[in-house]
Amino acid sequence: MRAFKYESTLEDGSLALALAPALTPTGVEKSPIFFRGIAKHPQILARGLLVLADITATRYFKYVPDAQRDPVLSAQGDRLRAECFSACNGVYARLDLLSTGFEGEIGFGTTNVDIGMTLRTALTGMKQKDKFHLLIGSDGFTTSQLRPIDDTLTKLEKVIHERPVQMPDRWIRALGNTAEIHRKMKPVLTLKGIQAKGFLTTLPPATGKDQSGWVTPTPTGAKLMPRPSKSSAYISGLHRLSALKRIMTHVTQITFYMLDNLEPGPSMIELTLPDTRLTISLTGASWQGYSGEGALLESLAQKETQEDAEKIKESLAFDAIINEKNLAEEWNISRKRVQSALALLAVSGRVGFDASEQAYFHRELPDDPNRILKDNPRLVGAKKLVDNITKTGKNNWIVSSQDANYLVHYEENTGAHQAKCTCTWYLNHQNKRGPCKHILAIQLKKDKSL
Predict the structure, then answer these.
(1) Which residues contact 140 (CB under 8 A, 6 or more apart)?
(2) Is residue 136 domain-resident?
């Protein structure tokens, strides 16, 4: 469906980023233009894009370079968001370019942006200038491909064939899981000025050993400690942050996020730069990928949530910040039901979550009606077990599978995310990577009986 007709270019003080066909408020746009104007911070823009390029082309677990993938770009009126995952799917990165960093009008829509090897080489040598022209879209590329011969003739300098956009299917699953995980994260540590820059200078290379621990502030930066202190944040795989050295001279603040339980697990850091934010999120272990986290399974198992999601998606308009209160009033449902519906819409990549804004944002990706079942085999397995459940007490159930019978403790007031099971999955992961299929089966059965 998507292909780049022209490659991104950087020449003579002008950066032109090529887009694939975009999903916009008016439908599919074959030659979208998201922005034309001046970038106030060209070096920050260039180095931010290079951070995304480094991450999407790196496999951090058992390090090897990998094929480049094209970041997802969303234009939301007051900002541009570029998102990608590492080749191992264990690192998520998002570059938020705010409208205050541009002179020009930002459009609306979602697509992929080309950051190929030619552009990467050019961006590396970019200097900080007062003015820098920026075009995000395919309009005008044909003129840059022509070289004048004399006053009346031109010749074709080069021909660029259409390049298919390869977006891994597991990115869709991962986008949904990261949104749910980020929604539950809270800021736990902030480094500013010299401390922030000092921390970035100590980051090991991407080829370094897998170091995990608690980032603890020092007068000149931060260091990794084996145990937590009063003000510390857990990081798994410090080498997975190595790409951030590219922009360390521009960073004014770093905020570390963790889940509410403040235990070792997934983590996120947010870097503040002039008119820009860069977010990097890491799975709880470098060998884990976001596509397998299972963070949305509890919402997927609720029939009411699926019905609410069908309604709410009609109200989304590439919002940078989705107003949950307005949606609740528009559809006459509770705020909690709106949150559950938005979490479900994340499954198909339609929404993400911005921890800094504490709000969902809208992106639109090609929809697959069968994605929920295809991407969640545990949910498929749970549906097969619904008729093999026996209640043995107030909060206890027996789920019969082909291989054995499993005891599940499921309390009404806590739900699936606090339930317990005797299966191997639960013993290995508890509910850190979503509930097991036996717990999901009970939730499906309870929902069916309503």
Answers:
(1) 16
(2) yes
